[in-house]
Design brief:
Layout (H helix, E strand, L loop, with lengths): L2 H29 L6 H19 L2 H11 L6 H17 L4 H24 L2 H22 L6 H8 L5 H22 L16 H14 L7 E5 L5 E5 L2 E6 L6 H19 L16 H15 L3 H14 L1 H4 L4 H8 L13 H19 L8 H12 L26 H20 L3 H6 L4 H10 L9 H9 L6 H15 L4
Parallel strand pairs: 1-3
Antiparallel strand pairs: 2-3
Amino acid sequence: MSEAWERLLPRINELEDISSALRLLNWDQQVMMPPKAAAARARSVATLGAIAHQRLCDPEVGALLDELSEADSLDEIQTASVRVLKRDYERATKIPEKLVRELAETSAIAYQTWTEARPADDFGMLEPHLTKLVALKKEEADSIGWSQERYDALLDEYEPEMTTKEVEQVFSELVAGLVPLADRVLPAVDERPDFVHATYETGPQNDFSQWLVEVLGFAKESGRLDTSPHPFTIPISVGDVRQTTRLDERDLLFSITGTMHETGHALYEQGIPEEMLGLPAGRVPSLGLHESQSRLWENQVGRSRAFTDFMLPHLKERFSDQLGLVTPEEFHRAMNHPERSLIRVIADELTYNLHIAFRFELETAIFRDELDVADLPGAWDEAMEKTVGIRPTDTKDGVLQDVHWSIGALGYFPTYTLGNLYAAALWAKATEQLPGLEEDLRRGDGSRLLTWLREKIHSRGYLESAKETAERVLGEPLTAQPLLKYLETKYSEIYDVAS
């Protein structure tokens, strides 16, 4: 083993320990922390973030990375870890420590304000914090540097090697296909059936979710499922992957799809080989690729006729009064009911990416200095009406509906649609290479699919970029066509709409 690697490894371990503590604080804030602890938690997060920044930016770390970048004695995992950590180092050393602390404090306070502003339907509460946060993110982007436009620096944090121009091109192709498809399908769709609006106690919902994650392959000895206002998944440390779902007495279907979505993320984290865990090579190469796993299990698996047929009898055991007379056809249609809705997280597959498209437009406008934070509510309403075809009547279901901006996750939204694009392409390839997959899912058996995903995606960690992974598995670059074909086929069959 390289002597320089032996000196770098304790530093990697220390950085991972600090990051693990930060992730645990983040999980606690969203799941268990009492509201009055927000200010103290913001200081704790800021302090640990500053310490991590100091450790990463130590010149000795940079010297070791330079030395190891030229070494030929490293194995594949070590080589990838050096490459990934060097990227982190070069990015971090460009950002002043003062800015790191300000971003951590401001986002922690903005998040807590958002949790109060949304139910109060009061954008004015969040506006000053978001204005400050956007200014800090612009400062961060300018510190990192960019060649084409400022937004590239923020997008690169979540989707390395992807540019704003590339996203705009694939989004343009997707929206051009989605809008006429939605216009053709939606007039043929009836109202949601009555059973969707019935009351479902959250206790049995939680029991079903706990059962479902294990059916899908989630190992509870290495993780847990809890509830939170906004479902999320976070790998705390080796052997500790946590996911949450949201339970609503009037929305059983959301808890099902939300649970399957987050389990997709969690299965990815649990599928990274043990020898990579805790090392930079043991990360996921992009949020878009991460999102592909959640979308594939939520949509291509969870909303398939085979899997909805599997789930229905198990749901009837818990909700016989509400679902006892529901047929498999009715349940499948309900799980795939498309409509123009205000809320992104409950949007169907047909319209979901239209929600992301206009958010991406707003974000790029902000960082091109074409839109001020104060003007976001009106700009949001106009953009949603133009792209999705529906206009909000308040801010809580409009500009305040998402948590992302309040936590400083600007540049994050495009990864959702990139994930949908990856998922459709991966599903097409998996069904080609795994004959009988539909029969597996009808039995509730996703083991062959999970094994395939672990071999093709999970086991690679960050040994290569997301683009390289996609091209290796798919044999071609990412485009909108596999997703458009999948949606065209699915909704044409369900609603008997001619192409």
